[in-house]
Amino acid sequence: TQLLEQSPQFLSIQEGENLTVYCNSSSVFSSLQWYRQEPGEGPVLLVTVVTGGEVKKLKRLTFQFGDARKDSSLHITAAQPGDTGLYLCAGRNTGKLIFGQGTTLQVKP
Amino acid sequence: NAGVMQNPRHLVRRRGQEARLRCSPMKGHSHVYWYRQLPEEGLKFMVYLQKENIIDESGMPKERFSAEFPKEGPSILRIQQVVRGDSAAYFCASSPLAGETGELFFGEGSRLTVL
Which residues on chain B are in Cβ contact (under 8 Å) with A40? Predict the structure, then answer.
């Protein structure tokens, strides 16, 4: 069974701080995706990383895929209250998408 | 282009009743996935379907749960004889491709409460 472990599970920070969320697995994934989910809504894709060592930037968000394609990280610079939400990493193999347990981020003004 | 449509958004059932959750994928998408989510937790994979076929149902309990995606009409997740532990948000997602990097487009979920 492929498992994705996210850490931390909960994070409460002040506006302007930086943070990093980690997604780790003992299995190799052909790709990893990061989704963001707001209360009462479905997850929305932020990014897909495919190549080991790949780094992708989306404004203040930086995503990295580990060299061995077993782990990924999401770094947010100068967090804003609008970044508040549940961040989910997901790995796909043999068709289905498996999600980590999520990181709940709260950014206080 | 309408997104993934799920209904009902909220459903209340008493123990022992049946719950039917419907999902209309985005236009042109032939792959449908059902996930279950408890508050502040990740999504647990239940079942992956293509039109008229169940591709992977490894995450779905063998008893009381069934899913279908007919040639015409929405995908249906059916839960028979519901119990309190079935209370959760059920999300449907669709994609146009079966490839390894395809994005999943999620609906807004159906929240089932079992009294």
Answer: 108-109
- Cβ separation B48–A95 shorter than 8 A: yes
What per-residue confidence (pLDDT) applies to A106?
Answer: 96
CA angle A89, B58, B21 (to 5 degrees): 80
Instruction: Tell if the CB–CB gap between A42 and B44 is shorter than 8 Å.
Output: no
- B41 CB-near residues (< 8 Å, 6+ apart): A101, A102
In a mutational test of the B interface, the residue from A97, A98, A99, A104 whose CB has the highest number of chain B CBs within 10 Å is A97
Judged by CB atoms closer than 8 Å, whether chains meet at A101 and B98 is answered as no
Q: How far apart, in whole angstroms, are the C-alpha atoms of residue A4 and residue A28?
A: 11
Q: Which chain B residues are closer than 8 Å to A88 by Cβ?
A: 42-43
Q: Which pLDDT tens digit goes with each residue over B24-64?
A: 999 989 899 999 998 877 899 999 999 889 999 999 999 99
Strands (E), A29-70: 32-37, 44-49, 55-58, 61-65
Predicted pLDDT of residue A56: 96
**C-alpha to C-alpha distance for A62 and A75, rounded to whole angstroms:** 5
